[in-house]
Amino acid sequence: MKVEAAIFNIVSVLLVVFAVVYGFWAKEPIGTTALTLSAGLTILIGGFFWFISRRIDARPEDRKDAEIADGAGELGFFSPASYWPLGIALSAALTALGLAFFYVWLVLIGLGAVLFTVGGLLFEYYVGQNAHS
């Protein structure tokens, strides 16, 4: 995670420099605001990765003496197929449609559908805390 933190923090420093230079050179507030907000977002992500990298053991990507074989092995469980992402996309589209036409009732239905489908995706393979694997 240290590599990712360094990448995002370098990008955020560059975006701050670009925002300052662009602000003085172009004297245009929209581009300066966009660059400043982008810098803020990358600082958030870089700070999160830096915070997490202090709490976990060093991964092979973070060690200078690591070999390629150190990264081999099982990386986790990945679902072979799921319909929940399609449901999330449709419910997010329904919410966006409600926002576009300012239909509060449609936004509420869409947000409920988003919460339901995200919960379905999260608990798709949940079998209970007492189940033996």
Give an overview of the whole structure:
This protein is an all-alpha fold. The protein folds into two domains: 2-66; 84-122. It contains four helices and no strands. Helix 3 runs antiparallel to helix 4. The model has no long low-confidence stretch (mean pLDDT 93).
Label this structure with key terms.
single chain, 133 residues, mainly alpha, 2 domains, 66% helix, flat
Write a short abstract of this structure.
Helices cover 66% and strands 0% of the residues.
Poorly predicted runs of 5 or more residues: none
**Morphology call:** flat
Distance between the termini: 30 Å
**What is the structural class?**
mainly alpha
Q: What radius of gyration results from the CA coordinates?
A: 22 Å
- The total count of strands amounts to 0
Q: How would a crystallographer describe the biggest sheet?
A: none
The proportion of strand residues reads: under 5%
Which sequence of SSEs, written as H and E, runs from N to C?
Answer: HHHH
Averaged pLDDT? 93
Estimate nothing, just give the exact number of structural domains. 2
The level of helicity is 55-70%
| Count of alpha and pi helical runs | 4
